[in-house]
# Entry
Amino acid sequence: MHFPALAVALVAALPLAAPAFAQATGTTLPDPVFDTPPDLSFGADMPATAGTGSIMSSQGRPIGGSVDWTGFYIGGQFGAGFTESNRSSNDESIMGGVTLGYDHDFGRWVLGGALDYDFADAEVAPGADLEEVFRLKIRGGPKIGRGLLYGAAGWAVADTSSLGDDDGWFIGGGYEYMVNDRFSVGGEVLYHEFDSFNGTGNDIEFTSVQVRATYRF
# Structure
């Protein structure tokens, strides 16, 4: 399997792997206790929990229940970047960086924004490498249990070793899983496009595939 396809496949598998990761990192949930079955005899007083039929933690909260995504977060990301250019052959490199953002939880949907910074080292023209990418991102999507499946888009600025810098746009998506109330892990794939980079006529396309970890506060 070609490396980009393998990286995308790994990110796609994150929704299945994230719960197992939570267990592997030692994050455990309290032992479940079942609600006391209601007394169904005629004329009996119905207990306050009658009819819920839910599995509750010892703190009285549903196991694997709703997660509140509202708040600020900071985190890191690491993966690979793949460039295509009309002035150079395709190239790839490792990349990584940091992210700072805010999400608002509307109940079944989450909407938020973030600032990203990534380093890279991929050739985009003879003697010119893509070295840094800055992003202003909007993301949003539906909650799936303790996970968030989202789409993302926004504005990006790329800096190179000898062609200067220029801005463009990006679009993509990802999946994030809340391991506990503070810590989340996930993966993200973003496609970037920079037309006629810095007036050189060099059209640059850049795809990033990264895993992420964030701390919420």
DSSP finds two helices and ten strands in the chain. The chain has a mean pLDDT of 81. The radius of gyration is 22 Å.
